[in-house]
Amino acid sequence: MMWKDLLKKIKVFKDLTPEEINLVEQLVKERIYKAGTKIIKEGEPSTEFFICLDGELIIQIDVPGRGAITTRTIGDRNIFGWSALTNIPYCAASVVTIKDTKVLVFTGAELKKMFENHPRTGYLVMRNLIDVVSSRLQDIRFGLASCITDHG
Hints:
Layout: H1 4-8, H2 18-25, E1 29-33, E2 38-40, E3 48-54, E4 57-63, E5 67-74, E6 79-80, E7 94-97, E8 101-107, H3 108-117, H4 119-151
Antiparallel strand pairs: 1-8, 2-7, 3-6, 3-8, 4-5, 4-7
Helix pairs in contact: 3-4
């Protein structure tokens, strides 16, 4: 299937040229997960980067003494598994499907190799990835502040 039009609409790929989108498209695979599937498990090696095409997922962290805490719900055109594009060796959170979900999957090592061979593409993707990660960290910060205020 051709993914060019969709990839251009994903935040991390939005600044890429048509030629660069072609490079990215060559590395993508499609998968479907049933509701309740743990796609990523916190603490396991981070090897894959994902884009949610259709569905809904929750991102959870394990809090000692409290269990799994949901930090975010994500849906269509959202990314997850971004640790696979970094030097972080393990997944920082778990990702579980809430309903049947279709995703695009990239092997992190393949994307990073492509970035090495095409530095401009790698720079743009990683720059945009930082924007996404920063936004999510800001959301978590506000959530933590709210919890402290509610309990303080």
